[in-house]
Specification:
Strand order of the largest sheet: 4-3-2-5-6-12-9-8-7
Distance between the termini: 17 Å
Number of strands: 15
Strand content: 15-25%
CATH architecture of one domain: 2-Layer Sandwich
Helix content: 40-55%
CATH topology of one domain: Nucleotidyltransferase, domain 5
Structural class: alpha+beta
Shape: globular
Number of helices: 15
Radius of gyration: 26 Å
Oligomer: single chain
Largest sheet: 9 strands, mixed
Length: about 450
């Protein structure tokens, strides 16, 4: 090797973890973790492992464990590598420090005592194995910043859920909570519970296909295009007068309509494949096949009709009827002062948080027996909450979607070079797009050269 020869040994992503780390400390999360964990004599490494777990959720949620990701794929300040055992131990600590973290975030995230908070409640198909499906509650500010999170088993009574949220928020509770839910709370008693103190309000998804008087009124209004009001590029709303005590808002999301149509097209194509050549089967064999459709239908059976002679055909009248619902959903709200636009946008916030939450879930491959513990579920919720918090802060500052921002920042990398005098890391050049993101976040770029290590004599 000549005197100035350099050997390139590896390249790791740097930009996204760098930006998240700055926000992590700006929000006081790192400082709070180090303080709360001090009596466990873990040193700073425990906080660094917890940051790595959260960053892993925000950046590569498909990974099974953060340990290999940290040790081989990214650069995290103060954590050159970690182990599976360190990740498991850090997850055990998370539920214990959750309350302190929530108090710190509550104070730091532009929160004022008279600010209203939106409590978003949604089902989640968690990838941690549990005997019951989970329901997640996330308290967010008006700007969509999550400041607290809860998790309940799917069979938790709505009244118990409401009592716990009120009790947990305690003295820190805002002057008003607006409950936003895509599940439950449809019973009159549940809706009364949500407004027990007379200050709180609710926005709840109502079924368009239920056959109720509410759904029938919405169905009658669906075709009246002239009454829709544009509230966003892809969202229209129409208020429907049904009762004096509640508001009903019919929403049409053009993006969701396209997704609904695409899903139905794939479903119909699959159904066409299943019934192809069935005309040649005997009546008994077709009857057996029909029973199979009924047992394992996954939505397909509703588009299937059987002719008088027992043949299978696509029910085009059912298809046309379903097309009328594409991208549409009905909301019921208790606040008579809130505009139809606000009602729709607050519910859209729920859908955005739910999508973000689902994207940050991952298969954790827990140690034997761990996946069924309550602590594992609580740790999972805290990881997703903190990852979503960092992502939403970034989105709000940059006015762009987290997937796009994450992808751009991930392209900032650092290569490791070794020469006769030692080893160093060299960062890639910062593009104008990357510089713009960092500037909006008020974050300096990572140093151009780092980790200079002289060669051993």
């Amino acid at each position: 090797m000549h005197e100035f020869d350099l050997e390139f040994t590896e390249s790791r992503s740097l930009g996204a973890t760098w930006a998240l780390d700055v926000l992590w400390n700006r929000l006081g999360i790192g400082e709070t973790m180090r303080r709360v964990l001090a009596d466990r004599h873990t040193g700073d490494s425990a906080e660094r492992v917890l940051f790595a777990l959260v960053a892993n959720r925000a950046l590569t949620p498909s990974a099974k464990l953060a340990a290999r990701w940290v040790s081989e794929d990214v650069i995290i300040s103060g954590l050159p590598a970690t182990s599976d055992d360190a990740c498991y131990q850090a997850m055990d600590w998370l539920p214990e420090i959750k309350d302190a973290l929530e108090r710190e975030v509550f104070e730091r995230v532009t929160y004022a005592p008279n600010q209203e908070v939106y409590l978003l409640v949604f089902d989640t198909a968690t990838y941690i194995e549990t005997e019951q499906p989970q329901v997640v509650g996330v308290a967010v500010t008006r700007h969509g910043i999550p400041v607290r999170a809860w998790s309940w088993s799917g069979n938790t009574a709505e009244s118990a859920l409401i009592r716990q949220v009120r009790s947990d928020m305690g003295a820190s509770a805002p002057t008003r909570i607006v409950w936003v839910a895509n599940r439950g709370f449809t019973a009159a008693g549940s809706r009364r519970d949500l407004r027990a103190d007379g200050r709180n309000q609710y926005i709840i998804a109502a079924k368009l296909r239920s056959g109720s008087a509410d759904a029938d009124a919405a169905a009658a209004a669906r075709s009246r295009q002239d009454r829709y009001q544009e509230v966003a590029a892809d969202l229209r709303v129409m208020e429907i007068r049904i009762s004096s005590g509640e508001r009903f808002v019919l929403c049409h999301d053009s993006g969701a309509a396209e997704r609904d149509a695409a899903v139905r097209a794939r479903m119909l194509a699959h159904l066409e494949e299943l019934i192809r050549d069935t005309d040649t089967l005997s009546s008994d064999m077709r009857a057996d096949k029909l029973r199979g459709f009924t047992v394992a239908r996954h939505g397909r059976h509703g588009y299937l009709r059987v002719t008088a002679s027992g043949q299978f055909r696509i029910d085009m009248s059912a298809v046309r009827a379903e097309e009328q619902f594409d991208g549409k959903y009905l909301l019921r709200a208790s606040d008579t002062a809130m505009t139809a636009e606000d009602i729709a946008l607050r519910y859209r916030q729920l859908l955005e948080v739910e999508r973000g939450w689902r994207s940050m879930q991952q298969v954790i491959d827990p140690r034997p027996g761990y996946q069924h513990t309550e602590g594992a579920i609580r740790a999972h919720v805290v990881l997703c909450w903190l990852a979503l918090l960092l992502a939403r802060v970034t989105e709000n500052a940059c006015r762009d979607s987290w997937p796009k921002l994450r992808q751009e920042l991930d392209h900032i990398a650092a290569g490791t070079f070794t020469g006769p005098t030692g080893t160093f890391r060299l960062r890639t050049e910062i593009t104008s797009a990357q510089r713009d993101i960092l500037a909006k976040l008020a974050i300096d770029p990572p140093p151009r050269i780092s980790q200079l290590t002289p060669a051993s004599s």
